[in-house]
Amino acid sequence: MDPSPVIHKTAADLRVAPNFSDYEAERRRFSWDAVSRALGVQPDGGLNIAWQALDRHVASGAGDKVAFRFLALDEVPQRDVTYAELTRLANRFCNVLRELGVGRGDRVFILTGRIPELYATLFGSLKNGSVVSPLFSAFGPEPIATRLNLGAGAVLVTTDTLFTRKVAAWRDRMPDLKHVLLVGEGGGPTCIPDTLDFGAMMQRAPDACEITPTTGEDMALLHFTSGTTGTPKGAVHVHGAAATHWATGRYALDLHPDDLYWCTADPGWVTGTSYGAVAPLLHGITSIVDPSEFDAERWYGILHSQGVSVWYTAPTAIRMLMKAGAEAAKARSYPHLRFIASVGEPLNPEAVWWGKNTLGLPIHDNWWQTETGGIMIANTPAFDIKPGSMGRPLPGVEASVVQRKEDGTLELAETPDAEGELALRRGWPSMFRAYLNDETRYRKCFAGDWYLTGDLARRDADGYYWFIGRLDDVIKSAGHLIGPFEVESALMEHPAVAEAGVIGKPDPVAGEVVKAFVSLNKGFEPGEALRLELLGHARSRLGAAVAPKEIAFQAELPRTRSGKIMRRLLKARELGLPEGDTSTLETGSGS
Ligand code: AMP
């Protein structure tokens, strides 16, 4: 493989002294015990994410600091919620649950937009020892019911509008659901039969509460992740996970006390909970919450006028910003912005450079998944970026590449540039503890001390990891193993291509041939001439063995709600096969 260009960091790139600068030394020095000490000891001896995220700061005198700034949307004005106020709201919600007889281990589901009530419910449930599961509010009735039933949801907090549109007709199919609490979207009381008024109950509830004694191993959060087929899997996370969120906020996001931080993910996706709520609160910083959906103009406006300093977003958003053109970005200045990170999908080298050239800052890709609960591999401020790489394992994380030998046994690859399944050594605090009700599947994810991630990767001689693809998505063509990402990245280097999704299509001779689906940037029209040009471009970049044999144009590629291109859906549609679980599909499964 060609040596990749590297983005060398300069003091100007960093703007403030980063939280660490010597990667190897920090890895040697690191211990999870030291992280636990930094997070403080809960007076009652327990360990609860909500105490670490909220009460700890109030107790140390930082209660007046703004925890979340909820931006204005339509008639709802901007609202700042301080650490003290969020603590009070969480206490009240904890008391609401107790009044209802909801206790430790009971499941509380949230189906709302990104409004203050979501965060009060999240942390109030944790204080009560209950288990929280935030869902995307854009889910349709069926995915909501499936998840509530899988998770045995006893409580649902939603809005009157969402309830009427998505839950009411399905309620008798949710046998575990005892209480539905409605937030009135008009701001007033709600009066729908068999439901409770969230606002009224919160008003009556006392401001103070004792936290239910929980330990680091108590179940705290339940996040659903889509399988390739069948029903979604519920990944179980525990209170002890906070140690990972704090450490990774420090190393991968470089959070500093005065930062104004914006994580664009919805809490319906694990990123929006781990990094949109928990990690910034653990660091005692102020976060922006935008209740609105993606809009390039609005986003540039937020970065500029709110003075965002650390921005955590996703490749799909970056690609959409790129599609909107550089002029839109350059129409404003971002003097406070100092660190940009991205997660969720491979970040094409083009996008890393786009950040550098357009916003003046490279984009730091990092890697993790619902099961890992927190960031595992990252481009950090402490070392140079190799655009297209996911970076290196964070302090406290041991990663490797595992290969299957001919006799079927697994072996850790030692040589540089070895390709294989990305594996992580057990022991980081936010590792998922179970797939809900599916012990067999959980056990299958481990080989001895190693958790097998289901992703294929390459580790280079400098210890950087390069994403190849999901094991399920990798293409085998005429003896070559082809990762869709490298083909997609090559296509995206062409100015016409906004997004690309690549699949293997069964072929009697080659086994599979590569087929690409592309959407185009503004100002380009699909047509035979462009198709041939793209085929030629890919062949010259990748060689005939790896380049796509077929290219099809699509206005939009199918994506999950968290922004991932659904290659398996492109493949199923191409081959006329069943589409499997499409509950997280962005278009078509909405309202
Ligand atoms: P989820 O559990 O929905 O967050 O999806 C996790 C999966 O997204 C991972 O297993 C990867 O396949 C993919 N993913 C996440 N971050 C990255 C990244 N930085 N580069 C490549 N793939 C990623």
CATH architecture tag of the largest domain:
3-Layer(aba) Sandwich
- CATH level-4 homologous superfamily of the largest domain: ANL, N-terminal domain
Q: If helices are DSSP runs of H or I spanning 4 or more residues, what is the number of helices?
A: 19
Strand order of the largest sheet: 2-1-11-10-12-13-14-15-16
Please give the radius of gyration in angstroms.
24 Å
Q: Which consecutive residue ranges, at least 5 long each, have pLDDT under 50?
A: none
Domains, number: 3
Assembly status: single chain
The end-to-end distance, rounded to whole angstroms, is 46 Å
The fraction of residues in strands falls at 15-25%
**How much helix, percentage-wise, in residues?**
25-40%
SSE layout and pairings?
Layout: H1 11-14, H2 23-29, H3 32-38, H4 49-59, E1 66-70, E2 79-82, H5 83-99, E3 107-111, H6 116-127, E4 131-134, H7 141-150, E5 153-159, H8 160-167, E6 179-183, E7 196-197, H9 198-204, E8 219-225, E9 233-238, H10 242-251, E10 260-263, H11 270-282, E11 286-289, H12 296-305, E12 310-313, H13 315-323, H14 326-330, E13 339-343, H15 349-359, E14 363-367, E15 377-378, E16 392-393, E17 399-404, E18 410-412, E19 418-425, E20 434-435, H16 439-444, E21 446-447, E22 450-459, E23 465-470, E24 475-477, E25 480-482, H17 484-492, E26 497-507, E27 511-520, H18 528-542, E28 550-553, H19 567-575
Parallel strand pairs: 1-11, 3-4, 3-5, 5-6, 6-7, 10-11, 10-12, 12-13, 13-14, 27-28
Antiparallel strand pairs: 1-2, 8-9, 9-20, 14-15, 15-16, 17-18, 17-19, 19-22, 21-22, 22-23, 24-25, 26-27
Helix pairs in contact: 4-5, 4-11, 5-6, 5-9, 10-11
Bound molecules: adenosine monophosphate.
